[in-house]
Amino acid sequence: MGKLLSNPKVIVGLVAALAVFFVALAGGALGASFGGGFLGSPIPHIQLAAEPVANIGGYTLNNTTIMFWASGILLLSLVWLATRKMTEIPGRMQGLFEAIVEFFDSTADSVAGGPKAGRRYLPVMLGIFLIVLFSNWLGILPGIGTIGKVETVAEFVEHRVEHRAHELDKGKAETKLIGSACLRPAVKDHHDRAFIEVLCENANEHFVVFDGRLIKPGRTEQTKVGLNQVVEVDELLAGRITVTEAEHQIEEGIVLHLSAGQKADCKQCGDLTGKRAGILVPYLRGSSTDLNTTLAVALFAMVAVQIWGIRALGGRAYAGKFFVNPFTKGPILTGVGFLEMFGEIARTISFTFRLFGNMFAGEILLIAMGFLLPVIGMLPFLGLELFVGLIQAFVFGMLALVFGVSASAHHGEEDHGGGSRGSHDDEHAAAGVHTPQTQGAH
Amino acid sequence: MDGDIKTIGAGLAIALGALGPGLGIGLLAGKAMEALGRNPEARAPIQQNMILALAFCEAIAIYAFLTAIIIVFVG
Amino acid sequence: MSALGINLPGLITQLVSFLILFFLLYKLLYGPVTKMLDQRAEKIKTSLEAAEEARKQAASSAEHVERELAAAREEGQRLISDARDAANRFREQEQVRTRQEIEQTRQRALADIARERDQAVEEVRREFADLAVTAAEKVVGRSLDRTAHAEVIDRVLKEGLVERKN
Prior knowledge:
heterotrimer, A: 2 domains, 17 helices, 6 strands, globular, disordered C terminus, B: mainly alpha, 2 helices
């Protein structure tokens, strides 16, 4: 140890690492409390729904959809490279994909019980694994989720007003749960009514104050303003300004006033009034952080499970798992059948939210680390996210396999866990992998 | 007031929701280590199953986290 | 639902994209790779079987060769010993024959010598008798009958020969 410390290179390295650490610490959110915070990254607008980036003929293209296509194209090109010229003695790419396929083949066989028994489940399992894996991994590339266009207040409001006015045109006045304070039945014009409702509803929606085209790095937490600081929503509701005047204020998109708390909080921010406000809409966002994607994969998996069940048992026998005649078999088994049916739906939801939650939480974790300890804080968590992405993709494929195997099993063979359906399946899945790695690992 | 209640709710959701999975992961890893100590040759399957089970445990914490996120940003 | 981001157009887009991607993966990855894996497994199986067969064949042929070799060795051994016996026999025969020949030659030589000697002795005796007669004639002066004297001389010589022989 002493010998190591006397090495000048080691000393320089240690000092440099410490310096980077302290610079990052001072530049981050903690440092901001003591007058630092010069490295503070902007906190992107956190929302569960995917952000629309383009509107093509009434269809809104989400950033997650673009990302899904991108990951799909990347995956397909890699696969194409690997299987373009198949040879008996595999090259690197071919070897990689062959190893993946072989690993899942042996896993499926060990769960389904018997050589070649897993072949039925293999394509779905493999497809889910690869697609989900690529969606997960591409989502944590740098720049994804942080590079995007600035949506101005006017654009933000416009989209929502259009949508709401369309609903009103179709006569769906009460479809949305809107606070009664925002309901203004007195306004007959659909556009105006929609405008007022949207403003009222999103009065506390937060925008970031920025100069020019770029959102300035740093101090973003303190440079947020609400929609009601750009438009005088209260005045509009009270009828003191007209809709046209409010629209004009939105078009300007300039911060009109600051609350007293904000002035006290951020003395070094300078005066924010008179600057423009907007939201960062990232062009790209990891496709696994969109519930639509995860729900689509989950639906696919569950439909595949049903098909496997019907194929293995036949339509009548498979339906017999869910619909049990209470007069011949007793009401308890009927209840169990209903629980099974509910279990299928619960599995779909569990699939959806497990993947979505992990990936979305991972993204937020990365953002938070970048906020607390800029530049270096993310590094270990990037590794963690790579791992989580892999594990979640594997778990997704694995569960599809286990559900498929249990759906194909005959009624009598299966051990019914009754109410604790979900946890039962999870145990099943964990116990299902016997020795999938014994061939590959060593 | 509304925001305060929401904040408390979100905090409680993730705090209580992380409690169970935390205990679960601890138990799980402990048992896995025990098994590993007892049977070191079975390292590969033990590790494999442990990681899978950890993912399931963690998923519960993730549900709680999602709930918190929904309370703060959506509700 | 809309706050969570789930909407029908988005869901349909993702679902359709996923299905297309899945189909392409099935065609591009699953089909060829499993085919190749099965093919290779089959090939390995057949080549293992072939190797086993070859091994068995080699083993059996080795055994065969061993047997042949042993037989050949035995045969050789037998031939060698036969040859040795024959040679021995031949040698003995030859020896015997040679010895007999030598003996015969010797006997013949001895007989020849004896005959020669007898002849020579006869001749000498005749000469000697003549000489003796002549000498005696000279000494006695022609008194003696030639034939009577020859008998006397003959008897004397015979007695002399018998004495010498003993």
